[in-house]
Amino acid sequence: MSNVEVLSSGLASQDLVSQAELAELFRLKYGSAEPTGWGPRMRGRFHHFTPDDYYEAAVAKLVTYDCNWLDVGCGRHIFPSNARLAKMLADRCALLVGVDPDVTVNENAFVHQRVNSHIEDYHSDRPFDLVTLRMCAEHVAEPDRALDALTHLTRPGGKVIIYTINRWSPVPIVTRLVPFWLHQPIKRVLWKTEEADTFPVSYLMNTRKDLSRLFQRHGFKEFHFEYLDDCRTSSRFWVGQQIELAAWKFLKTLGLRYPENCLLGIYERL
To answer: Which of 40, 45, 55, 189 is the most core-located residue (most Cβ within 10 A)?
Structure first.
């Protein structure tokens, strides 16, 4: 079975992504063990998959060969660290539209249509089967306006995937306490983030309760939800990454959630 077939085998609400499917995506993303960098090799030894890995695998299962896909807040990338999968899914779907108020959307090589606009101002005559919001819900200042737009853009039975930060994780808590002008210097040290990719945050759609309430109010039901343990705070540093992964594994043996985590919610329009 090919990588494409493995990653398009359908989605069950009770079993989003299996370990076998994550392992297949890991090989697709990073290649064989020998050329892979020390970070993926270390995560492989701990059997840890990043929140990005889970999100990419979930999207891959929902992008069908005839679907219309809207990616909100995509900027220049569908998947920043997985161009191979981005191309694969862009080729698979019938239509892929990227909408982003930032001009970096015009640099996106994979979307079929580029729209430099806020989602609230975007209109389409074609309803979408799938809408994805990757790490942009935390920037939404007016959630009800955004949900109004998503309601009109998503066909009945269509799904919206929200992949975002958990408001109550340590890093977002620190982010709310630190002045915005310091965000970029800190992100540059930790993750080499470019200034063009740093934006103000609102955190109005960053708990399961907030998301459930918003989507229910706008005619959606929660199809699937999970917390994704995130061990990437010190991912640039060998010792720090080793400590994070060891702590994650220890907490997992106790049945405890890792304190730093992301939210992955899938909502179906009624």
So the answer is: 55
CA distance 178 to 123: 36
Summarize pLDDT for 217-258 with one digit per residue, the tens.
999 999 999 999 999 988 888 998 999 999 999 999 999 999
Say how far residue 57 (Cα) sits from the centre of its chain: 10
Strands of the 68-72 sheet, one edge to the other:
113-116, 95-100, 68-72, 128-134, 154-165, 261-269, 220-229
Note if the pTM is more than 0.85. yes
Q: Which two tokens stand for residue 3?
A: 């990588």
CATH class of 3-269: alpha beta
Q: Are strands 113-116 and 220-229 parallel, antiparallel or unpaired?
A: unpaired
Alpha carbons 40 and 203: distance in angstroms, whole number: 30
Confirm if 57 and 25 have CB atoms less than 8 A apart. Answer: yes
Q: Are 260 and 227 in contact (CB under 8 A)?
A: no
Residue pLDDT, tens place only, 102-116: 999 999 999 999 999
**Residue 268 DSSP SS3:** strand
**Is 138 in contact with 202 (CB distance < 8 Å)?**
yes
Sign, CA torsion 135/137/140/145? positive
Distance, in Å, from the CA atom of 206 to the CA atom of 18, rounded to the nearest integer, reads 25
Summarised one tens digit per residue, pLDDT across range 164-213 is: 999 999 887 877 666 654 555 555 444 455 545 556 788 999 999 999 99
The H-assigned helical ranges of the chain are: 3-6, 19-30, 38-46, 51-62, 83-92, 143-153, 170-177, 183-191, 208-217, 238-253
